[in-house]
Amino acid sequence: MKRMSMIFKSKANKAMDRMEDPRQTLDYSYQKQLELLTKVRRGVADVATSRKRIELQVNRLQQESTKLHGQAQQALSMGREDLAREALTRRSGLEQQIADLTQQHAALQAEEEKLTLAAQRLQAQVEAFRTRKETIKATYTAAEAQTRISEAVSGISEELGDVGLAVQRAEDKTAQMQARAGAIDELIASGALDNMTGAKDDITAELDRMASTSDVELELARMKGALTAGQPAPALEAGTAPSTATPAPPVPPTVAASPPPPATPQPQPATPQPPLAPGAGPAGEARPAGEGSQQ
Q1: Residue 144: CA count within 13 A, CB half-sphere
Q2: How far apart are the C-alpha atoms of 290 and 32, rounded to whole Å?
Q3: Using DSSP, how many helices (H) and how many strands (E) does the chain show?
Q4: 3-state class of 44 per DSSP?
Q5: What pLDDT sits at residue 285?
Q6: 290: pLDDT strictly greater than 50
């Protein structure tokens, strides 16, 4: 039970330390001191009031004593000694009351002076505490602001810590998405994954370009061979892609065997002949290369 009580008290003390604000505590202490100073001043005022009341009562008794003394003298002058004795007896009682009241007045005056001095000292202490309180509050506020600034700069504050964690999570997710995108691009480029968008990678595009260039060169070589042989080059059918096979080297045209010597021509009337196409023989037949130049 003692241990449980100690644990409970320590937890409560820790919770109160977290809840306590030194500035509020100082303000509360200053308020209590002001209340105490007010009570002291009220006590001084009460003592002064009592002293003043005693002074008034002493003055009234002194006036009455003076009156009795005058009455005693008047009665004695009139031969009334008994009346003079009665007046002096009453005056003697008043003098005793005046003496008692004078003692009370002196005590109250001394008490008033003590309370006044105490009130002045307390006033000075309260003013000093007020100055110190304001200084401590300003220092505490500055220290608190400096601590918050330092925590904000270092990123260990509670609010900025959450912001820092959010930024860190965003950076981690961004890095993860970038790595995933790079990995997918590499897999598509290597052919491990099919490209569903229809776009070609750089290697496929380069191979297609080279195949197209090879087809163009092959077709050009075929047309050159056909022209050299005197035959028109066969055109590719519409919609038929050129072959991507490796083009075969053009076959050189076979030189025709030398014809037998012609018979002796008979004279005939000259008939104009149409001009022969380059590389073409009589009747549209192909002639070997170089034969026309020999003729």
Answers
A1: 9
A2: 133
A3: 6, 0
A4: helix
A5: 41
A6: no
C-alpha span between 213 and 215 (Å, rounded): 5
Longest Cα pair distance anywhere in the chain, in angstroms?
Answer: 223
Per domain, the residue ranges of the chain are: 8-154, 157-193, 200-233
Among 2.60.40, 1.10.1790, 1.20.5, 1.10.287, what is the CATH number of 8-154?
1.10.287
Q: What are phi and psi of 286, to 5 degrees?
A: -75, 140
Joined tokens for residue 254: 């076979």
Unique residue bearing structure tokens 């065997």: 257
The model's pLDDT over 190-219, given as tens digits with 9 standing for 90+, comes to 766 665 565 655 666 677 777 778 777 888
- Helix, strand, coil shares, percent, the chain, to 5: 75, 0, 25
Beta-carbon contacts of 224 under 8 Å, excluding residues fewer than 6 positions away, are 250
Dig out the tokens for 211 from the structure. 């195949």
**Element holding 164 (H helix, E strand):** helix 158-190
**Residue 257 predicted with pLDDT over 80:** no
- What are 184's two structure tokens? 């997918």
The encoded tokens of residue 96 equal 């005793």
- Whether the CA torsion 134, 138, 143, 148 is positive or negative: it is positive
The residue whose two tokens read 């009562």 is: 57
Residues in the chain, total: 295
User: The whole model's pTM is what?
Assistant: 0.46
